[in-house]
C-alpha cells in the first residue's frame, strides 16, 4: 500500500518540476501574418541582431485568414508598442526567425499580450544582416549577457 502512494507522490513532484521548468519568466507579444513561411515554434526572435526571445506558438484563424504568432520575450527586454515584426527566411532550408524593429524612443513599452504591427513580403537572411561589430573599437561594442543586449559598453 505504501509503494503505490510513494509512486503517486513522486510522480506528482516530477510533474510539478517539469511543468515549472517550461514556465520561464518573460512576457508574450502577438503578431498577425497572412503567411508565416516555414516559421515554427522555438524559432528565434531578434532585435538589432540579438536574440530577445523565441516563437512560442503559431495558430491559424480561418475566419480572418491570418496566422497569429505568439512570441515569448525575455523579461529584461523592452519592446515598444510601435515595433514591427518581420519574418525572415534563413538561407538554410526550414529556418526562419522573427525580427522586431526597436520602435521609436517616445513610444510606450509593450506589455503582456500586446499585438505588434507586421511587415510582410519576401525577406531573406541574405538581405538582412545583423550589425557587424568586428571593425568597431571594443569600447563601442555592446555587452552581451546570456544572449540579451546589455545597454552598457565594454571598457
Quick summary:
The chain is mainly β and 155 residues long.
Description:
With 155 residues, this protein is mainly β. Helices cover 14% and strands 37% of the residues. The longest helix has 21 residues, at 2-22. Residues 11-21 and 126-155 have low confidence and may be disordered.
What descriptive keywords fit this protein?
155 residues; mainly beta; 7-stranded mixed beta barrel; two-stranded antiparallel ribbon; 1 helix; 9 strands; 37% strand
Number of strands: 9
Low-confidence blocks of residues: 11-21, 126-155
Measured by DSSP, the beta-strand proportion falls in 35-45%
Work out the helicity level.
10-25%
* Strand line-up across the major sheet: 1-4-3-2-6-5-7
Topology:
Layout lengths: L1 H21 L4 E7 L10 E4 L2 E12 L4 E8 L10 E6 L6 E5 L13 E6 L22 E4 L2 E6 L2
Parallel strand pairs: 1-7, 2-6, 5-7
Antiparallel strand pairs: 1-4, 2-3, 3-4, 5-6, 8-9
